[in-house]
Backbone:
């Protein structure tokens, strides 16, 4: 019996691979993955005028009403296909392309879609708009015409034969072929009950993901939301709201003799009812549509411990009633005044503590290095008197005298004590993602804590004015800013105790934290002002702050800081930071620490480089 079952499974798997391969219209040997071209495509899209905050991501398959061949119907394939589309926040491209039998053509198709998306605007009519965008792109860049023609000529033989289609479908297919070959030549398209076979050279209407905001799910659901890990899939699912029936009516028919008698009753271990389903993530990936309901099935015997906010007796200590701050809405291109409430806080249970002994050797070395900056001396040029001759000033004087011009200038160099006239404010990201483990021994929050401690030791040695803050957020009403050291406070055991009492918080509303840091730095009298941000990811929150909204608000906050004469600089350990930080902080406004364990040592070194530049 076991042998027959194994034989049946083997035959079934062989048949599945055979029929799927025969029914697929793709060319697997020429397949090109989006992951191998994602970064170049993003650069091409933005270089051609696409919005800098639009992310290039993989598109999920969508259902299409197509005429499938007999083999495709037997194999159950081609019911869902990934299509390229673009909206204000995302450029979604198929996760892989195997449309053409040549790898070069599939790569060229990816580039064409990125170029077309940069030219595209709001879509009102799928076929007419794609023709118009294609025509404009070819007119603006005539060198693209041969490439486009190669893609069209190689695609037409692969499309369905109009002679084998119905009357309406054949007319629509002929019109699409003409529109591909001569963009802009077709204004009216015949109607057909079935959709045409997908055109990989065109963009499709933006898919309505129906992603509800977390606030729509009720407060109970929000407490269960967690930040996605780096290993999870980034493909999004369509979602729909469903209302569960509250009626308890209905007819249940059963036979009484089917019930267990008392003698037949057996004890069952039902602990599995309250356990987590380890296959839930895999099942969710296979689903095309996720249904969300306000009603929640509570687990028997379950206890909800992680609430949106901790109780008052265990929460951090608030300082004041909160500060109202604006926030940038890129959709309306305006600042929303008093939109965010920022709450200054002190870490709970922060008693004065000395520097941990494990950091003492490194702290002594950093203090010795930074103490030398106090005694750095600076050479002043063109002085009327000094210890050495200024050769450059003497050469300028000699050349000017040869030409009949003799301006008075000093010809000596004088060495004077260098006065460091600068202030620095360090913002540390304390969101829940910092609770993740880097390895078996270190968590992100521990690395950030060590970095703050050593940073404070180094700056206390050099004598620069500095302040230390941490931040996290839970929607716009609760942006939490941990006060570790203000400009007026000394760096002592009280500050060290506050740093060591830090705990991971909630989410990352960067814009509000940067604006408050800008206000604090703006009140300093120093000439040079440095704003450092240490983070492990991109801006996000439970509300609209996720995605482009948060990126645009953070970018606007950075621009506001620069307008006030500050130097914002971001230090990150996120390996995907190159996709969004250049847009927010500029190409030279951030650095990536590829080995996060080195952050405590690298942070003071970066400060030294930035302040000596």
Residues:
């Amino acid at each position: 019996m076991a042998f027959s079952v194994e034989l049946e499974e083997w035959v079934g798997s062989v048949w599945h691979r055979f029929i799927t391969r025969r029914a697929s219209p793709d060319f697997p040997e020429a397949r090109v993955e989006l992951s191998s071209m994602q970064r170049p495509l993003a650069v091409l899209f933005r270089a051609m005028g696409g919005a800098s905050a639009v992310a290039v991501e993989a598109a999920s398959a969508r259902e299409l009403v197509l005429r499938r061949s007999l083999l495709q119907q037997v194999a159950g394939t081609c019911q869902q296909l990934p299509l390229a589309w673009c909206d204000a926040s995302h450029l979604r491209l198929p996760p892989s392309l195997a449309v053409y039998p040549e790898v070069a053509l599939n790569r060229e198709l990816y580039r064409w879609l990125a170029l077309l998306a940069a030219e595209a605007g709001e879509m009102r009519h799928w076929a007419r708009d794609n023709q118009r965008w294609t025509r404009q792109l070819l007119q603006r860049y005539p060198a693209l015409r041969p490439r486009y023609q190669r893609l069209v000529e190689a695609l037409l033989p692969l499309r369905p034969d109009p002679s084998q289609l119905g009357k309406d479908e054949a007319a629509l297919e002929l019109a699409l072929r003409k529109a591909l070959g001569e963009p802009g030549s077709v204004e009216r398209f015949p109607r057909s009950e079935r959709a045409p076979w997908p055109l990989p050279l065109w963009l499709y209407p933006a898919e309505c993901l129906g992603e509800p905001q977390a606030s729509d799910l009720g407060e109970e659901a929000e407490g269960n939301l967690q930040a996605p890990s780096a290993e999870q899939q980034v493909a999004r699912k369509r979602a729909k709201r469903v209302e569960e029936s509250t009626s308890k009516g209905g007819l249940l028919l059963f036979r009484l003799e089917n019930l267990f008698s008392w003698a037949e009753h057996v004890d069952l271990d039902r602990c599995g009812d309250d356990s987590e389903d380890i296959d839930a993530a895999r099942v969710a990936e296979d689903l095309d549509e996720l249904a969300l309901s306000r009603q929640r099935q509570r687990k028997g015997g379950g206890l909800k411990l992680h609430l949106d906010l901790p109780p008052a007796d265990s929460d951090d200590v608030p300082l004041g009633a909160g500060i109202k701050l604006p926030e940038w809405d890129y959709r309306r291109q305006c600042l929303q005044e008093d939109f965010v409430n920022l709450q200054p806080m002190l870490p709970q249970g922060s008693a004065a503590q000395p520097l941990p002994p494990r950091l003492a050797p490194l702290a002594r070395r950093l203090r010795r290095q930074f103490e030398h900056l106090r005694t750095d001396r600076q050479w002043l040029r063109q002085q009327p008197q000094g210890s050495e001759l200024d050769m450059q000033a003497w050469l300028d004087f000699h050349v000017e005298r040869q030409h009949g011009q003799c301006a008075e200038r000093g010809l000596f160099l004088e060495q004077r004590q260098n006065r460091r006239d600068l202030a620095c404010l360090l913002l540390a990201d304390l969101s829940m993602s910092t609770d993740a483990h880097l390895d078996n021994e270190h968590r992100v929050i521990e690395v950030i804590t060590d970095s703050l401690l050593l940073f404070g030791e180094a700056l206390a040695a050099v004598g620069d004015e500095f302040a230390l803050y941490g931040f996290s957020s839970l929607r716009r009403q609760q942006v939490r800013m941990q006060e570790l050291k203000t400009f007026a406070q000394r760096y002592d055991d009280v500050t060290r105790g506050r740093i060591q009492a830090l705990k991971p918080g909630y989410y990352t509303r960067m814009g509000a934290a940067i604006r408050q840091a800008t206000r604090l730095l703006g009140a300093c009298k120093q000439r040079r002002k440095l704003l450092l941000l240490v983070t492990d990811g991109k801006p996000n929150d439970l509300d609209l702050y996720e995605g482009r909204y948060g990126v645009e608000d953070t970018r606007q906050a950075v621009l506001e800081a620069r307008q006030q004469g500050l130097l914002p600089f971001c230090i990150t350990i996120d390996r995907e930071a190159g996709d969004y930080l250049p847009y927010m902080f500029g190409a030279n406004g951030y650095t990536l620490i590829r080995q996060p364990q080195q952050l405590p040592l690298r942070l003071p070194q970066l400060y030294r480089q930035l302040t000596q530049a």
About this structure: The longest helix spans residues 2-23. Residues 25-181 form one domain. DSSP finds 17 helices and 21 strands in the chain. The chain has three domains: 25-181, 320-371+420-612, 377-417.
